[in-house]
Amino acid sequence: MTTREDTLAFIAKRLLDFDTLETTVTSADFREVAVWSVREALEAAYEAGRRAAPPTKTVCPACNRVIETRPL
């Protein structure tokens, strides 16, 4: 199972070319990043969260049965 930290580190490395997300309190903590790279990283993080979301249960208004929905 992939942890939240693993997912963040993967996105940071793959999409933003960050070796680490650890704070070093040096100039290495600051980078210039293209806006399209930030967008791609945010989209990857959003998708990771969407996939990790638990199923939602609701009652069907037509038949009163419990329906479970999952993200696509």
Overview of this protein structure:
The chain has 72 residues and is an alpha+beta fold. It has one domain (4-69). The protein has helices at 4-16, 35-52, and strands spanning 56-59, 66-69. The chain has a two-stranded antiparallel ribbon with strand order 1-2. Strand 1 (56-59) and strand 2 (66-69) form a beta hairpin. The longest helix has 18 residues, at 35-52. The chain is elongated. The two termini are 19 Å apart.
Number of helices: 2
Helix content: 40-55%
**Strand line-up across the major sheet:** 1-2
Order of helices and strands: HHEE
Number of domains: 1
Outline the low-pLDDT stretches: none
Amino-to-carboxy terminus distance: 19 Å
Number of strands: 2
For the residues shown, what is the average pLDDT?
Answer: 91
Instruction: Describe the main β-sheet briefly.
Output: 2 strands, antiparallel
Task: Using the CA coordinates, give the radius of gyration.
Answer: 18 Å
Principal-axis shape equals elongated
Look at the helices and sheets and give the structural class.
alpha+beta
Q: Beta-strand percentage?
A: 5-15%
Set out the fold topology:
Elements: H1 4-16, H2 35-52, E1 56-59, E2 66-69
Antiparallel strand pairs: 1-2
Key terms for this structure?
2 helices, alpha+beta, 2 strands, elongated, two-stranded antiparallel ribbon, 72 residues
Short description:
With 72 residues, the chain is α+β, with helices and mostly antiparallel strands. It is built from two helices and two strands; from the N terminus they run H-H-E-E. The model has no long low-confidence stretch (mean pLDDT 91).
